[in-house]
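Quick start: read one record
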Amino acid sequence: MVSLHATKLMHSVEGGFIVAKDPAVSEKMEWMRRFGHRGTEEFHGVGTNAKLSEFHAAMGLCNLKHIEEILGRRKAICDAYDEALFSHQLSSMVYRDGATRNYSYFPCLLRTESDLLRVLERFNEMGIHPRRYFFPSLESLPFIPESSMSRMCISSDVARRVLCLPLSVSINDDALKLIVSVFG
């Protein structure tokens, strides 16, 4: 399942799609997205109205035409963050040799949650709203059995300290300097 929500690198404003290797799964998904119809008069099962509107599809095609430009600008922003923030004792993602990035997010790991909250407050005072995308840690959700909580100490620790910096093609050099200034 792939989201094409507006916050994603490649988006169609809303919507998404499903990819399946198994033709039977693909066929089932096809009739499920068409109210359960399999043809004009045959119902194959329960379904939904899960078709992408023409507007959303057109928006996705427009964005697809610019994907290389989008990736290039987002890469430049990530490279600038890496260079500017390396000296601030922040940790960022470590990528395996040969791995490629899609530059969807720029998560950085602060030393403590109090450091994160101080930085977040500074950002908010400036009208910049970075996200704690991976917070809270999943084991702390009310529907997860308590017995699993003790096994997730690393996830819990990291979730409290990770902050995703703003990342958009609309971030210009002045905005980038402003964002980086919060740390220094």
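The chain has two domains: 2-64, 67-181.
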